[in-house]
Structure formats: C-alpha cells, structure tokens
Amino acid sequence: MVLARRLNEQAGALVRQGRLAVYPSSRGQEACQVAAVSVLEARDWLFPTYRDAAAIAARGVDPVEVLTMLRGDRHCGYDPVAHRVAPQATPLATQLPHAVGVGHAARLKGEDTVVMALCGDGATSEGDFHEACNFAAVFAAPVVFLVQNNKYAISVPLARQSVAPSLAAKAVGYGMPGVRVDGNDLAALTVVLGEAVRRAREGGGPTLVEADTYRVEAHTNADDASRYRDDDEVAEWVRRDPLLRLRAHLLAEGALTDALEAECAAAAEELAARVRDGMNRERAADPDEMFAHVYATPTAQLVEQRAGLRAELELEGS
C-alpha cells in the first residue's frame, strides 16, 4: 500500500511536468487496489480500469509499462497474456463483458481460473455492467466483480446514479451474492474478496462486492473537483485514510517497527526513481507501426498510405 501511494504521488508529479498526458489517481483507494490482487493466484486474470494502475503494478507489471498508455502511446504498455492482466479500460464497464468471457471460456475448458473484474460506481450505470453480471450469473462464470464505490462518476454523485440501498444490493436481481465491505480496511477486503475468489474457483459462480471508499483527489488532472464537492467532505475521508488505519493497527499489534517502516519508505522511493527514469526516456517513434497491426494482410489503401507517409518523411529528411 505504501508503494501504491508513492506511485500515485509520482504519477501526479509526472503529469505536472508534462511527462504523462493524464493520470487518474487512486489515492484513498489503495486498500482496494492491493487486496484485489493479493487474493489472486498466478493463473488468474485481472481486468482493470484506467484508475487501477496501482493494482496492475501490485500484480507484478513494471510501473513504467503500466504508465505507458497514459503518456499517449498507441498500446497498453505491457503484455496482457504474460501477466494475466487485461489492458486498462477507459470507457466505463466495457472490460466487464470481456472479463466474463475469459472466465466462461476457462470454465468450459475445465480450468480453475478466476477473473477479478474491477470497476467504479459509475460503471454500474452502464449497460455493459448489467450484461456482464447477468451472463456471469446465468452461466456461473468464475468472476468477482469488485465495484470501488468512490462516490463519484467524475462529477456525478452516487445519489444521482442509483436509489438502491447499496450497489451490492443489485446482485439480488442477478441471482448472485452481493457483499458490501469497508473499502478502506485491507483486512476486511482480503477476507471478503478471498471468500469470493474461493467460491468462484470451486464452481459457485460470480460475486458482486461493493467496496465503500472515496476518491480523495480529482477525477484526473483535467478535473476541478471543487466544482461539485466541498473540502469538508474530502477532509472527512482523509481521516479514514487506509494507510493510516493499517499503520495504526500494525503499531497497536506490535507488528510494525521503525526499521520495517523505513524499509517500506526506501522501497517506495526506489520505485518512484525507477518510474521517473523510465518516463523521462524519450521513446523512438516508428511511423510504420501505425500500419503494422491493422490487418494481417495490408489493404491496397493502407499500402498506398504507408508509401505516401514514407515519401513525405524522406523528403523532410533530405
């Protein structure tokens, strides 16, 4: 969680320096990010959103590769198959049917793979969310839907999205278990998500987990959160910071020493330095890449366009 917090901080700084085009911070949601990954096995799949960079890094993906898409590159930055991590999805909920498809395919093949599908409260207002939940329930797909309810879909508060008693309550309509959990409590999250993963692996089908948390920072660097929420609301959630809560608990249990805390801080600074170094390196652009992965056999139009671009570049080079 310390590494996740430092990654959020460093990525925010890189945006201000112009090294990243955009960064959706998950500050305040680090417990969700870490718990979601900690309960998975290597053979399982993670389907993240644009706000889940910390979860992807916790899965073992190089943070520099995680941030590659957010600097404006044409691809997601890492090999999804090698890491069993789908590309980050920017459109709301579009990754959820894909996640269910992977889980359903694994079940048909007799594999015990589990898929952890992450989304936010805004995604639950989308049709793809309904279709994914309904299909997963009907076909008992081994999927855990983790809704990180951070209270806002950009500027739209939860009260303007749903009047259900909770987002977890929506699970009743699909015929699957729904659990609401404190999204800032790492231990509670680990227990609830661990049970959902166990149930899915044993053939019990999907579970909808709603993590009650908060997006402390703005939606992205392009957002002015002060237009739709006040400082007192943010301050109340800052007092519930998941890192501070875990630290207080570990200190009370005698499990956190000064040496261990210093070790965690040093590891976080090492991560931040690697991210800075990676993001400050200019990547050589190859214009031919625009044409290389459109069709297995390029169309006549693509061949013509590529030849035209090459001619223009040669002219500029001369």
From TrEMBL:
E.C. code: 1.2.4.4
Dehydrogenase E1 component domain ranges (all copies): 1-279
Family from the record: Belongs to the BCKDHA family.
Required co-factors: thiamine diphosphate
Enzyme class of the recorded protein, top EC level: oxidoreductase
CDD domains the record matches: TPP_E1_PDC_ADC_BCADC
Taxonomic classification: Bacteria, Bacillati, Actinomycetota, Actinomycetes, Pseudonocardiales
Database matches in Pfam families: E1_dh (PF00676)
Entry keyword set: Oxidoreductase, Pyruvate, Thiamine pyrophosphate
Protein name (record): 2-oxoisovalerate dehydrogenase subunit alpha
Catalytic activity: N(6)-[(R)-lipoyl]-L-lysyl-[protein] + 3-methyl-2-oxobutanoate + H(+) = N(6)-[(R)-S(8)-2-methylpropanoyldihydrolipoyl]-L-lysyl-[protein] + CO2
Function of the protein: The branched-chain alpha-keto dehydrogenase complex catalyzes the overall conversion of alpha-keto acids to acyl-CoA and CO(2). It contains multiple copies of three enzymatic components: branched-chain alpha-keto acid decarboxylase (E1), lipoamide acyltransferase (E2) and lipoamide dehydrogenase (E3).
PANTHER family: 2-OXOISOVALERATE DEHYDROGENASE SUBUNIT ALPHA, MITOCHONDRIAL (PTHR43380:SF1)
